[in-house]
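Q: My collaborator sent me two sequences in one message, no labels, and asked for predicted structures for both. Can we handle them in order? The first one she listed is below.
A: Yes, handling them in the order given. First sequence, followed by its structure tokens:
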Amino acid sequence: MPEDLTRHNSFSANSHYPEPKIECKNINYANILLQDYAGTVSELTASCLYVFQHIVSEDRYKDYSKLIKGISIVEMKHLHLLGETIKLLGVKPVYTNSVYPCGQLWSAAYVNYTDRILDMILEDIKSEKQAIRNYEKDMCLINDKYIRKLLERIIEDEKVHLKLFKEMYKEYSK
């Protein structure tokens, strides 16, 4: 797990990540976070999508490939922080969207495998917008100050990613 993100500062917000912490164990909160961890629109899906996009774009679109690689590392950091928080909440951080009741396992079918540059960037923009909406919704459902702080920090990164993808889209739309 990449602990030192100093080489990837341009792909994340400037503030520090809070340490995973909770007020008390709560399976309902864990189920909410599992959606962000390994649901259809999740950190796991984003990480896999961005690694795929990095690989298929590195020969033809070097600037995009560099961007997507840096952002994928930040998304992996989010995945790690959410997994640690889910564990603290009393649930094993498996790649599923719910544990009680038993949910659906994460699927590689969640990843959009298009390799056309503008379509990839549009998918990235769509994914980041949905992630922000999901985290904002979660903030309304979770009443734990530590988790809320973590979600606020992750939202900051997602907004940076959205801005970077919009800028990249403008460049490739010319």
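Q: And the one she listed second?
A: Here it is, processed independently of the first:
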Amino acid sequence: MRIFAVPTRQITVHASHGVVMDFLPRMARTDGIRVNIARIEAGGTIGEHRAPVRQIFAIVDGRGEVAAGGGSRRQIEAGQAAVWEPGEMHQSWATVDMLVAIVETQGEIELGEQFVEIHD
């Protein structure tokens, strides 16, 4: 077993505030999968930006709102995830402290029947 310190930094790009991100190592030979953990304080936001690759924004704890393509904000909470496609403009906000796993991949996402899409 090896134990490493995880690099952490405050995120301020794209007018983001109240966000601290833990950067986990990239996975080799896996279509460029990357997983990061974000802690977004209540009232914080990851500002609007274009998804460089397909992204899964999975809420581990807390709740907030997400929006894409200039559309209206949608509620999101623990146990739910937003998926943004490459090039899609998007933003997220925390209404209470929120812990989020962010998965980025150049590959496809397999959404089997156990994943039920939530409609407003």
